[in-house]
Amino acid sequence: MDPKLAEDLNSLPDLLDVTSKVAGEALAGLAERAAAVPPVAVVPVPLPAEGAGTRGALEAFSQRWEPGFAASAGPRYLGFVTGGATPAALAGDWLTAAYDQNPASGMDSSAQDLERETVGWLAELFGLGPEFSGAFVTGATMSTVTGLAIAREWLGERAGVHVSEEGAAALGPVTVLSGSPHSSVLKALSFLGMGRSALLKVPLLPGREAVDVAKLAEVLETLDGPAVVVANAGTVNTVDFDDLRAIAALKQRYDFWLHVDAAFGGFAALVPEHAALTAGLDQADSVVVDLHKWLNVPYDSAVQFTRRRDLQLRVFANNAAYLGEIGATPDFLHLTPENSRRLRALPAWFSLVAYGRAGHREIVERCVALARDLGARIDGSPRWHLLAPVRLNVVCFTPAAEVTQDRIDALVQAIAEDGTTFLTPTVYDGRPALRAAFSNWRTTPADVDRVFAALERVAGD
């Protein structure tokens, strides 16, 4: 055994204590750490010929890389839609690495059963019935890929073609309809061989990011075959929701697969005040939910749900003697693109057990209240212009004066350099803009005070 490896093995408990101290200090300083750290060039070093051991690696990391890490798990990181990691989720994640289980197969441990239990809890949380099955994937993009892969097989079923056997070319051109599709939908269509050009955008309701259901019906009426409809339960700019019940009702007249992107908007189901926004989610054929957003578990973690596990199995089945028989309850390696992976379910299981439905509801309620607080402040400021109502947890706004993309890019840079918060750019209704997304369990009203003060300060420069 390599001497450094043997040394580390013999002192493993002490090394874990040292690592825990480093992690604890990082978390203790998270609230005051810069929300974003504009990257600076780090001079590469050669691959070490001889190892330095874990202590040496910790020292090298602390000196060379740790200063450039952002407080993306902190309370004022409002870029993208980024949660943090609740204490229980962090504990679960550490144990995930320690036990190093591969839940893709059920041949050697109970890890797969823990994942099934967690998926069942999540389905209940989002109001999805027993007809839905699910599995963990890396994020919303891979959940979208998985859902649309099943939809592609469904299109083949309608056409009398096994796409999983004959390939996407055997299916021919397909039609995918959506009002405000997330960019990952286009990526998935490209990846799956259906092509980005398969996506047709349907007109939106005036002043909204929600699809005009009447216009959607008109487009469906013109089609000469089945289609895929991608609906939104929360858009990225304004967290707008398509009328899922009205869209699902169209299935009585038209033949289409309903795929719903509920990456973070699905969490509205936890709060009675907002649950109506997700009404009809249980009528979908496939559903995307991203857990490293509002469930506040570490990256990378998402789930995909579908009511057609038979088609999912047809797409992803991996028949090999060493994997055993598929059986009536397929192992997860037969249901997603990955054959082996970490036990992503464990951090979610820990957080759900630790805080329950009530604890996670409180996180959602607080984030919505804080977003509305910031939105009201921006709406009352002469320096800023609120572009849309704060429907849930995202504030979409722009400078009050005439603005260009260069101005927005400069503001994003200035906000990052200030370090108090971090926001990401967007374009809404043709106007370059900024967006602030609240989804971190640590965020408090005091953080909104600091964020708004920083925005006023940057706007005045």
Automatic annotation (TrEMBL):
<dbReference type="GO" id="GO:0017000">
    <property type="term" value="P:antibiotic biosynthetic process"/>
</dbReference>
<keyword id="KW-0808">Transferase</keyword>
<keyword id="KW-0032">Aminotransferase</keyword>
<dbReference type="InterPro" id="IPR015424">
    <property type="entry name" value="PyrdxlP-dep_Trfase"/>
</dbReference>
<dbReference type="GO" id="GO:0006520">
    <property type="term" value="P:amino acid metabolic process"/>
</dbReference>
<dbReference type="GO" id="GO:0008483">
    <property type="term" value="F:transaminase activity"/>
</dbReference>
<keyword id="KW-0456">Lyase</keyword>
<dbReference type="GO" id="GO:0004058">
    <property type="term" value="F:aromatic-L-amino-acid decarboxylase activity"/>
</dbReference>
<dbReference type="InterPro" id="IPR010977">
    <property type="entry name" value="Aromatic_deC"/>
</dbReference>
<protein>
    <submittedName>
        <fullName>Aspartate aminotransferase family protein</fullName>
    </submittedName>
</protein>
<keyword id="KW-0210">Decarboxylase</keyword>
<keyword id="KW-0045">Antibiotic biosynthesis</keyword>
<dbReference type="InterPro" id="IPR015421">
    <property type="entry name" value="PyrdxlP-dep_Trfase_major"/>
</dbReference>
<keyword id="KW-0663">Pyridoxal phosphate</keyword>
<dbReference type="InterPro" id="IPR015422">
    <property type="entry name" value="PyrdxlP-dep_Trfase_small"/>
</dbReference>
<dbReference type="GO" id="GO:0019752">
    <property type="term" value="P:carboxylic acid metabolic process"/>
</dbReference>
<dbReference type="GO" id="GO:0030170">
    <property type="term" value="F:pyridoxal phosphate binding"/>
</dbReference>
<dbReference type="Pfam" id="PF00282">
    <property type="entry name" value="Pyridoxal_deC"/>
</dbReference>
<feature type="modified residue" description="N6-(pyridoxal phosphate)lysine">
    <location>
        <position position="293"/>
    </location>
</feature>
<comment type="similarity">
    <text>Belongs to the group II decarboxylase family.</text>
</comment>
<dbReference type="InterPro" id="IPR002129">
    <property type="entry name" value="PyrdxlP-dep_de-COase"/>
</dbReference>
